[in-house]
């Protein structure tokens, strides 16, 4: 097994970090990795915002309702960015309608996710810990205001990184057979039976995020998490439209 795969198979989210700072040189290298990510039609429809002001980080942690976000040594927010390409068109006297359509939005969203994951892989390969923050979307209008996001941009996810100050267990995943198929989608007859063993394994896992509690079985997690969906988060389409996207 090579080092990249070893590092990827060892992935675990880190939520507590030491005070040690990541050097500017390392950070720049990680940003260059993100910048080298494949991008849909090479339009590079995403951008990254490094959060350095501590009050801003604190305000974002309040949106996320995750106090540990305020303590991450580095926080990079990945956004859909069609503003840049729209401006490039405008400066040439062309109104690029397509910069606001659903297709370019999803292209930008995918680009942003891939760049974020590329940065995460690179950071972990250097022994750094990382955490994604989807929770920054708990209050999209507030985040847009804090980051001064123009029309045709949209926040996707935050990535926190630094030197780990905790050593969580590996979080077990569903058996690969439940999510890998050949040629066509395979509807399984009895999912509960298929995940029986996984449920037991997951039930032995201690989640440091949740004050060292054992996590529920996967079947219970699915029901609990999907039942308690955040009403604000389900407004996301409205916020995407407010940013000028015609979706
Ligand atoms: C898109 C995305 C959003 C996430 N948002 C959060 C978050 O807001 N806060 C957090 O603590 N972890 C967040 N996570 C981390 C997941 O909880 C974590 O990846 C998952 O529980 C599996 O654990 P592991 O990464 O340690 O294997 C997010 C992960 C992804 C991919």
Instruction: Write down the domain tally.
Output: 2
List each distinct ligand once.
flavin mononucleotide
The H/E string reads HHEHEHHEHEHHEEHH
Low-confidence stretches: none
- Determine the CATH superfamily of the largest domain: NADH Oxidase
CATH-derived architecture of the largest domain: 3-Layer(aba) Sandwich
Kindly describe this structure.
It contains 10 helices and 6 strands, in the order ααβαβααβαβααββαα. It has 247 residues and is an alpha+beta fold. The protein has 2 domains: 165 residues, NADH Oxidase (3-Layer(aba) Sandwich); 51 residues, no CATH class. It has a 4-stranded antiparallel beta sheet with strand order 1-2-4-3, sandwiched between helices. The radius of gyration is 20 Å and the shape is globular. It starts with a helix and ends in a 5-residue tail after the last helix. The structure holds flavin mononucleotide.
């Amino acid at each position: 097994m090579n080092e990249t795969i070893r590092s990827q198979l060892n992935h675990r989210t880190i939520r507590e970090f030491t005070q040690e700072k990541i050097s500017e040189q390392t950070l720049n290298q990680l940003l260059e990795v993100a910048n080298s990510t494949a991008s849909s039609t090479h339009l590079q429809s995403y951008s990254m915002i490094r959060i350095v002001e501590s009050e801003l980080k604190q305000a974002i942690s309040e949106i996320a309702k995750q106090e540990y976000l305020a303590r991450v040594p580095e926080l990079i927010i990945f956004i859909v960015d069609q503003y840049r390409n729209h401006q490039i068109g405008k400066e040439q006297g062309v109104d690029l309608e397509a910069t606001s359509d659903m297709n370019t939005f999803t292209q930008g969203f995918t680009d942003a996710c891939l760049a974020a994951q590329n940065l995460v892989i690179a950071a972990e390969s250097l022994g750094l810990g990382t955490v994604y923050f989807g929770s920054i979307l708990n209050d999209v209008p507030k985040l847009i205001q804090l980051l001064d996001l123009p029309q045709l941009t949209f926040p996707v996810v935050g990535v926190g990184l630094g030197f780990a100050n905790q050593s969580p267990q590996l979080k077990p995943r569903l058996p690969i057979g439940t999510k890998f198929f050949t040629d066509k989608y395979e509807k399984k007859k009895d999912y509960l039976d298929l995940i029986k063993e996984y449920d037991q394994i997951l039930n032995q896992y201690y989640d440091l995020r949740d004050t060292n509690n054992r996590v529920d079985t996967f079947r219970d997690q699915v029901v609990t998490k999907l039942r308690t969906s955040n009403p604000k988060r389900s407004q996301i389409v409205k916020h995407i439209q407010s940013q000028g996207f015609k979706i």
